[in-house]
Amino acid sequence: MKIEKIETYRVGDRWLFVEIYTDNGICGLGEAGLWGYPQAAERVIESFKSYLIGQHPLRIEHHQQFLYRNAHFRGAAVSGALGGIDIALWDIAGKHLQAPVWQLLGGKCRERIRCYMHIGGERPQELAASARQAVDKGFTAVRFTPFPRGYEGLRYSRVVEEAVAYVSAVREEVGPDVDLCVEIHRRLTPMEAEGLARELVPFRIFFLEDPTLPDSVQTMGRLAAQIPVPIATGERLHTIFEFRELLEAGACRFIRPDVCLAGGLTQCKKIAALAEAHQVGVIPHNPLSPVSTAACVQLDASIPNFVLQEYTGEDQPPKSEIVRHTLKLEGGYLKVPEEQGIGIELNHEALARYPARQRPLDTPLHEDGSVADR
């Protein structure tokens, strides 16, 4: 069996799919995770074709090492491209061996995957109502950003007051049996994040996600030692070495590897093992398509330290259309699929309805004109 052809498909302003075809008729599906700059990841995949075509697709670890180390250029474009290729190769392996990928990764540690749902609302009451809708659907965890529109123009005290109001409203609405995942989205300085975290202690939040910029693991480690709530971070990291340094710094209680960005299933299985050795849980980042969700579930099912899965809803177009079927969601849990490979296929007929387009660059600014973080 040899790799015969590799195709890429850019869809909308963030999705980049990869299909790898073999000479015996198997097609593997993956997704690249550099959603901010999919054109860059697509160009890296194009450069990888000259090596991959003609290779045996089941030498997954060897191909990962060869492509990552051939020139020792690092970065999200390289790792994102590798993520899409790696997932597609695992999909081929599962189909060739007639087994779901989770079986090849060591078998199931669980029968279903607990998910959290994104909620939203302009004001605390609207956010609380959104949380109630998610809970009524069976979700036992919700995630939200506790800042109003135009936060970047507010003074620190007002930002904290608004955030507390949002979190308080959600906790009051859903009670103690639902976990609250609070996403800061890198918008605060370490000083601001420390102050806000202390104000949120009474609400027993499950985690504070990306409270400050992820550029320095030392800074995140110092912050984690100072605040009384768990930190979740890691969605922008893309190598096992970066995650090792994050864990050694004691910078979080939960890591958030993105399977499509951090080198695919091959690397994320290793990242999860590093976290296990540090008694840190895994909450995979998943802002992309049903292909990403399917890949995440294969990892979630096969690791002992899985905690929660990000789920953004796949019952509405375009997500409901671009694959032939989505994974089954039952009461806030995704059922671990028994199908071969990652368990889903692209719907090529639907892709044309969502042509590639440039993502707008619209980073917010502070009132003095300086750049704010999103």
Question: How would you portray this structure in words?
Answer:
By secondary structure, the protein is an alpha/beta fold. The protein has two domains: 3-100, 2-Layer Sandwich (Enolase-like, domain 1); 103-340, TIM Barrel, CATH 3.20.20. It is built from twelve helices and 13 strands. Strands 4, 5, 6, 7, 8, 9, 10, 11, 12 and 13 form a ten-stranded mixed β-sheet that branches. A three-stranded antiparallel β-sheet has the order 1-2-3. Helix 5 packs parallel to helix 6 and helix 6 (156-174) runs parallel beside helix 7. The mean pLDDT is 95.
Which structural class fits the helix and strand makeup?
alpha/beta
What is the CATH top level name of the largest domain?
Alpha Beta
The CATH H-level homologous superfamily of the largest domain: Enolase-like C-terminal domain
CATH topology of the largest domain: TIM Barrel
Count of the separate structural domains: 2
* Number of helices, counting only DSSP H or I runs of 4 residues or more: 12
**What would you say the CATH architecture of the largest domain is?**
Alpha-Beta Barrel
Distance between the termini: 45 Å
Features:
2 domains, 374 residues, ten-stranded mixed β-sheet, 39% helix, alpha/beta, 12 helices, globular, TIM Barrel, 13 strands, Enolase-like, domain 1, three-stranded antiparallel β-sheet
